[in-house]
Task: inverse folding
């Protein structure tokens, strides 16, 4: 789920320091731990950034060492598990080079800004991981940041020549067995005895994090025609996912399938409130005067000619009040485009103004404002115009808001994906992890562990890293325990879990 955020978000006092993990001390009595009916001698993990150990907006060594598959492999060693190799980055900066030029940004750390508030900042420095320097051999961790479900079966997804155009993935290009290899092919070729498969998050995530800027491709069975922010058709997902499970179980291997969480439960969507802009009475009155013509003339006129309904006109109404919090205005591409009508009689508006008013509405409590909006919401981009405030007199653009209708598309797709995943787990007698339910517990009250409470609160909750999307080491340890529990339940194994409190959260220094 590669997602590079560009923001500076102030947070309250933070006292979290990253630390190296300490695994549980094993009980040394021979035979205490058991692999049950499974064989962990050759474990391969397949997935996207969540499998790779991506965190803080980048892939870096410490994050990879704290990936849930690596944590699990350490625990598998108690029941006959073998070596577990990963395509490690060259440093802890996390950026990527291609032929010496940087193509991916460095990771976030928590630092104090000029205003004295802590917030995420990118590490300075030139990364040393160059995509064109291919790694040799095979790797047990086949997590590829940015991969969607259909990417795992796409030949050439690891072709270095395709990286500049976006036809290939830079992370897979580092360790693909050949320029025409597929991720699932390279994974299956290792003849694993046990596997985990967690894929599909990115099939909806990029649509959500872009504020619904992509297209819901439900009904389009040709993934080669999809844009990077589009929602994958559920039938396409079902076909490629089934193909992947068949490939991984062809030799009789056992494994675990993990479903797709509700992406709108992550801090990326829950940190910035919808009613985020305080206004005094004078400012509210001034704003309402500016939008009076829009509310009292434009909208009734559109209703009068039958272009929009009275209900839609009410949705588009712009009103401010004196309060600590006000809903900002925004543009919403989901609304009917009425630009052409507004340029003609009886409105006769200039093209630029007509285009703006055609998409204008106010945020409501059902919308979600994405985390990067915190860097622009309430700001004044033009120093010569202090009245031009983004979200107030200047609309917040659609990329920063995930509307309720857009959330419904995400939910519909993920529900269909999850039905496929659970059905295949049952049909193949594989272990199944309900990550959706697990994330819901983290987001709603939190998870009690041996050292405290794990929640989805940005920075202070401990579960999510500074990109607001990917887990911290502690969050990955929690994920590993969920999967280990499913393995123990399904295969009658007794693999020990880890103490998640031994794992760090956000990093406040450059380790």
Result:
């Amino acid at each position: 789920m590669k997602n590079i955020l560009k923001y500076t978000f102030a947070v309250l006092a933070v006292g979290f320091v990253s630390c190296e993990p300490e695994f549980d001390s094993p009980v040394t009595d021979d035979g205490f731990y058991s692999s049950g009916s499974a064989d962990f001698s050759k474990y391969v993990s397949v997935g996207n950034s969540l499998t790779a150990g991506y965190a803080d907006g980048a892939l870096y060594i410490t994050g990879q060492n704290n990936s849930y598959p690596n944590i699990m492999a350490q625990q598998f060693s108690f029941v006959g598990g073998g070596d577990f190799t990963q395509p490690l980055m060259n440093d802890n900066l996390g950026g990527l080079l291609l032929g010496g030029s940087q193509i991916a940004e460095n990771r976030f750390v928590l630092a104090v800004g000029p205003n004295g508030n802590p917030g995420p900042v990118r590490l300075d420095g030139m990364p040393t991981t160059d995509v064109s320097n291919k790694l040799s051999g095979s790797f047990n961790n086949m997590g590829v940041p940015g991969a969607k479900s259909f990417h795992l079966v796409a030949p050439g997804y690891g072709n270095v020549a395709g990286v500049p155009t976006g036809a290939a993935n830079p992370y897979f290009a580092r360790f693909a067995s050949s320029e025409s290899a597929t991720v699932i092919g390279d994974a299956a070729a290792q003849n694993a005895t046990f596997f985990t498969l967690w894929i599909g998050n990115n099939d909806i995530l990029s649509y959500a994090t872009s504020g619904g800027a992509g297209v819901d491709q439900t009904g389009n069975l040709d993934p080669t025609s999809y844009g990077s922010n589009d929602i994958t058709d559920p039938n396409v997902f079902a076909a490629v996912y089934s193909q992947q499970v068949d490939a991984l179980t062809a030799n009789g291997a056992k494994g675990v399938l993990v479903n797709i969480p509700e992406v709108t439960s992550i801090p990326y969507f829950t940190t910035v409130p919808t009613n985020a802009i305080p206004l005094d009475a004078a400012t509210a009155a001034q704003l309402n005067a500016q939008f009076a013509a829009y509310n009292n003339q434009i909208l009734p006129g559109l209703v009068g000619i039958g272009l929009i309904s009275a209900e839609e006109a009410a949705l588009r109404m712009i009103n401010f009040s004196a309060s600590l919090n006000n809903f900002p205005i925004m543009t919403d591409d989901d609304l009917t485009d009425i630009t052409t009508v507004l340029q003609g009689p009886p409105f006769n508006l200039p093209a630029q103004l007509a285009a703006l008013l055609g998409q204008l509405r106010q945020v409501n409590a059902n919308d979600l404002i994405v985390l990067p909006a915190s860097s622009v919401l309430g700001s004044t981009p033009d120093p010569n115009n202090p009245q031009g405030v983004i979200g107030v007199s200047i609309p917040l653009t659609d990329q920063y808001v995930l509307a309720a209708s857009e959330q419904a598309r995400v939910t519909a797709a993920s529900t269909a994906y999850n039905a496929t995943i659970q059905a295949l787990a049952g049909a193949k007698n594989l272990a199944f992890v309900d990550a959706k339910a697990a994330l819901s517990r983290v987001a709603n009250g939190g998870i009690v562990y041996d050292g405290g409470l794990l929640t989805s609160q940005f920075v202070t909750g401990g579960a999510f890293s500074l990109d607001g999307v990917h887990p911290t080491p502690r969050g990955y340890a929690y994920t590993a325990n969920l999967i280990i529990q499913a393995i123990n339940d399904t295969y009658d194994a007794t693999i020990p879990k880890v103490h998640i409190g031994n794992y760090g959260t956000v990093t406040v220094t450059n380790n």
